[in-house]
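Why do we bother with a discrete structure alphabet at all? Because it lets us treat a fold like text: something you can write down, compare, and reason about line by line. To make this less abstract, here is a complete entry for Sodium:solute symporter family protein. Read it the way you would read a sentence in a foreign language you are learning: slowly, and without expecting to understand everything at once.
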Amino acid sequence: MVLGLSYLDIGVLALYFGVIVYIGIRSSLKIKKEEDYFLGGRQFGKLFSTFASFGQATSADGPAGVATTTFKNGASGIWSSLLMLFATPLFWITAPWLRRLRITTMGDFYEQRYASRKMAATYALVGTIGMMGLLSVGYKAVTTTAMAMTGKPDSALTATEKIEKEKADRLFELSNENFTYLSQAEKQELTELRQENPRALFSYFSEDVLIWTICFIVLFYTALGGLEAAFYTDLLQGVFIILLSIILIPFAWSAINEQFGGSGMMQALSHLHEQLPESTFEIFGSPATLDFTWYFIVMAALVSGMTVVAQPNQLVTAGAAKSEDAARTGFVTGTFMKRIVTILWGMVGLCAILLYGGKIMNSDFVWGHATTQLLAPLGLGLVGLMLASLMAALMSTADCLMITVSGLVVNNFYKYFFPNHSARHYIWAGRISGGVFLIGAAIITTQFDTILQILKFIWEFFVVFVAAFWLGLKWRRANRIAAWSSILLTFTLFYLIPTLLPNIFPALRTDESLTKLTKSRIVTRNYEVKAVDLENRKHDIAQWEKLPQSEKEQVKKPEELSLGGYNAVSYAMPRQAIFWSKGVSTSKADTRYGRGYIYLELYLLDRLGWDLSKNPYALNETIRLGIRLLFPFLVLFVIAWSTKPDQQEYLADFYRKMRTRAVDNSLLKQQPTTETLLFPNSNWELYTWNKKDRTGFLLACLIVILIIGLLYLMVSLGS
């Protein structure tokens, strides 16, 4: 064993890294011009486009993240990664548009459509920062999981680490008790330990060292080989991702049967339903995630579906395909593959609840802990294979994002200041800017303990450009002034002012009107009593018996339960912040203060007389997302109608290009226009659908229904 890994595990990792470095060197020999580096010569068919889309959409935060949210919240936690499912049929229509643009970067769209290099440069800078934050999510996930897989045994801990671990174990013990039946002394101890937040896991590896190691490996093979190296490794890494999504499940089922008796898949699934509370298997409306209401899911899917198409990385997989058929097939198929493996990750999380429910303090370590417990005893190098697979998941995202950002910076920013250089010069500028991007993402990762707020921020951030993109494609009346107004006003009102105000006026963070919370709600559900409920109730009664007599008089003794009967379970929904992006915390002096930036739109609604504290948190979030999506469109519409339209010369060229289907890499002037306008005498560029458009869209909608059915099947089998 070396640093918690067997020699066979280390051998598997070395072999994997050797193969992808070889791919990078081999691909570098083919690069002759900029398009070869940034878009692989637009030569990729359906297979490579599928795995590129799958690899780009699936980073290391996917498996570990879904397992974490499922471990904490039950089956409904799968929605943390499944929200985009409902937007996937839309990609069947939008992917061909991205291929028809025939551009190198998404920044080129703003330059060509609005004749503004400054708008393209602005998009390049903002998009680069956004992609850094997106990549930092994957960095964080893979390093956290790797640390869980290489944890030190108690015998290897230092004296200081042993003391901290003892505190963490005590915190975990108290956190798992029913808070109602803790003594006052125990409640005070729990509060103090939560503030201290001691570590429970100590790894042989430094998290920072892991981050920088992955960063430089990706930098080496992608900087050499460009997008071709990225796509070839995405094919390899896509296989690894699918493998890691499946490999843990049979071993988890075997461990469940070994603990509870029996054999086979169905017996293991039966044990899950017999041993876990019924609420664990609720997909919609679970008390654990009551805020995932149907209306929030619909709004979140709409926002993500609209903004994701405007993100810089979406052009790469569609734009690099040799035809729009390859682009749409690869984009949609790869995205659906991600939705299917998401359900498999959720199964690992459900199994982990039963196997490790009382053993893991930090749910972020679930995937790594399960890997070590289930695969390491076999001695087959499977831990190394899992670690390689997780790194593959991260790298398949990192390489595409690196090429995306390289193209953005070089074509839309660097060339603005340094024009008229050779292709070789710009390729090297792309390699250097890509390296800066990877290093920047690594630096961001080392500055944060949690990535949840980062991910949420990045996901919403591209509403800044969403109206300029969509209306630029579909409305000839959209002009440069209106696009700039939409971009700048949306950014200023939703991000710049809300971020600056609390820093300029710190008193805002403690203002009572800004720190109010949603009202407390009690949700009661009736569940059939199972064996696990009986054990939990016996434990609660024992805890009550140990209370001092003075405290017993204040807390009612829990009633005994009978197997097969029904138990009314009440859940106190937590009060949640309304106006702050990172919530509201309480200081030691019992003063509430807001964290993050302000949601000015919600504060304005509240001041106008709508008491948002009476709304469920999900409704407030739905309203906020709706406002952020609608506002930039309204601004662009109003300004465009109030100002003169742009010159028709470049608009005619742009829309002729969009009406010409990209069947291969032939020059645009050699191809006839193929689209028929739905409203030919208007300013709207809406095309009639042909048989392939209709069939593909309806088939994609059917697959959405089938995937939801698969999710229901997963949580129902064995019940």
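What the structure line is telling us, in plain words: The longest helix spans residues 207-260. The two ends are 42 Å apart (CA to CA).
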